[in-house]
Amino acid sequence: MAPSRRIAVVGQGFVGLPAAMLAVQAGHSVVGYDTDPYRVLRLEHGDSYVADVSSARLVEALHSGRYLPTGDPDALEGFDIALIAVPTPATDDRPDLSCIEAAAKTLAAYLRPRCLVILESTTYPGTTVDIVAPALETSGLTAGRDFRLGYAPERLDPGAGLDGVVHVPKIAAGIDEQSLRAVVEFWSGLVDTVVPAPDIQTAEFAKLVENAFRLVNISFVNELTRDAAVLGVSVWAALQLAATKPYGYMPFHPGAGAGGHCLPSDTAYLAWCLRTQGHPSPLIETAARVNRNQPGYVAQRIMAGLIRRFHTLTPDRARIVLLGATYKPDVADVRDSCALKVSTELRRTGAEVIVVDPLATDVNGVLAELTLALVAQASAVAVLVAHHGLDYDLIRRARYVFDACGVLEPGPNIEQL
Ligand SMILES: NC(=O)c1ccc[n+]([C@@H]2O[C@H](COP(=O)([O-])OP(=O)(O)OC[C@H]3O[C@@H](n4cnc5c(N)ncnc54)[C@H](O)[C@@H]3O)[C@@H](O)[C@H]2O)c1
Predict the structure, then answer these.
(1) Residue 206 included in any domain
(2) Is the distance from CB of 378 to CB of 398 less than 8 angstroms?
(3) Is residue 153 part of a domain?
(4) How many Å apart are CA 290 and CA 223, to the nearest integer?
(5) What's the pLDDT score for residue 380?
(6) What distance in angstroms lies between residue 358's CA and the mean position of ligand 1's atoms?
(7) Would you call 300 helix, strand, or coil by DSSP?
(8) Phi and psi torsions of 170, nearest 5°
(9) β-sheet with 170-174: strand ranges across
(10) How does DSSP classify residue 366?
């Protein structure tokens, strides 16, 4: 077992909290620092807001005496290794690195010779060296000479659970050989496999490649939904047939669009970074546009289906029940959710829209349960996010069902995207 170290994890969100728990499990002492006092309070009370970390697991970490959630930066004093796991949003398709800069400046006040700082957030190539290193160097210490600096992008699959993270290979990079060795050594104590990168920029790029790959492919199948509708064939049946090819094909599924905190903004980071180099990337930019338009397309299909079935119905008299508000199935996260964008588009037509999602009840106006009364009174029920446990028998009883997830057999009252 690797020697126990003092670890600081800056940012206790979807990425930082699981990393903190893994470090505690590996025997380290961990300070989980976060600027959100409400989150810190919940952590102190053993109340986890991250689905992949159970409250029981959090309480166990607190009881070990080796996990301290805090909003007090002075608790960072004396750290050996710090992870930065703060948000990297895109504003108007441009990177917003203010959280990374702020986190690095906070750490700078407590930086000591020979310590290691690892950036975990997703960002564009150049960030660790151009933004994080100078912010840390406000301490008077120099990256490489006095302290180690690395990058290890997170590959968390929300909803897959904390134990799943351990089996996902982790990319590790350093600004020099010593830094790389330190990052590899630290993460090797937490996960099964660590993959060293040749340099920091390649590792930063690799993370964006992974997410752009998903967005481009999801946009591709979403574009195919429109093509299939024009051709009068089922995109779902065609994709199922294509997926029987044993090589050279990887299945992706249509839907309301790719949302969440990662795919759209990470792809925007890559596109922005390339544009600033005078080299726009048409494929990536088109994929992002297709993705932005998908919720509008889904809303339009629902409305068109309604009007086709009930000729006299006008949008302002339609009552549409949408199932799902989160950005993907089986999570509670609604950040950049395409399902919510579908509801906004439908409301714009004047329709009454009711959103039901048992996992997203923190969101204003979202109902937890689909009832027979809701189904009976709806002009349409649309499945936008296929959480486990949906009551398909009840859904099938609706007068018109629009299935954006390919989970129901098409029928007289059931239309697929
Ligand atoms: N959520 C995912 O599934 C996922 C997967 C892979 C990578 N990532 C990347 O990981 C990074 C973090 O994402 P997340 O989902 O954990 O975000 P998050 O919003 O869940 O958590 C980030 C936390 O950082 C805190 N914070 C912000 N600024 C801070 C500062 N200066 N000092 C201390 N705390 C600060 C926030 O209060 C918040 O609690 C992003 O770059 C994201 O793109 C996320």
Answers:
(1) no
(2) yes
(3) yes
(4) 7
(5) 96
(6) 24
(7) helix
(8) -110, 125
(9) 67-70, 29-33, 6-10, 81-84, 116-119, 148-151, 170-174, 194-196
(10) -
Banded pLDDT at 270 (limits 50, 70, 90): very high
Distance 272 CA to ligand 1 centre (A): 20
pLDDT of residue 1: 59
303 in the same domain as 396: yes
Do both 321 and 173 map to the same domain? no
**Nearest residue (CA) to ligand 1, atom 33:** 34
Q: Give the per-residue pLDDT at 163.
A: 83
Specify the amino acid at residue 291: N
Contact 204, 230 (CB under 8 A): no
For residue 22, how far is its CA from the centre of ligand 1 (angstroms)? 16
Query: What's the Rg (C-alpha) of the chain?
Result: 23
Q: Whose CA is nearest to atom 18 of ligand 1?
A: 13
Reading the block at residue 15, the tokens are: 């990425």
Express each pLDDT in 182-221 by its tens digit: 999 999 999 999 999 999 999 999 999 999 999 999 999 9
Q: Is residue 410 part of a domain?
A: yes
Nearest Cα residue to 181 out of 150, 137, 202: 150
pTM of this structure: 0.93
Residues 168 and 29 in one domain: yes
User: How close is the Cα of 24 to the center of ligand 1, in Å?
Assistant: 19
| Count of domains for the chain | 2
Average pLDDT for 333-347? 96
| Measured CA distances, 300 to 150, 218, 228, 296, 314 (Å) | 47, 19, 16, 6, 14
Domain range for 382 is 211-416
149 phi/psi in degrees, rounded to 5? -140, 130
Q: How far apart are CA 241 and CA 237, in angstroms?
A: 6
pLDDT of residue 3: 72
Is-catalytic flag, 262? Answer: yes
For residues 185 and 284, state if they share a domain.
no
Q: In angstroms, rounded to a whole number, what is the distance separating the alpha carbons of residues 216 and 31?
A: 38
Q: Cβ < 6 Å from ligand 1: which residues?
A: 10-16, 33-36, 39, 85-88, 99, 102-103, 106, 121-122, 154, 156, 158, 261-262
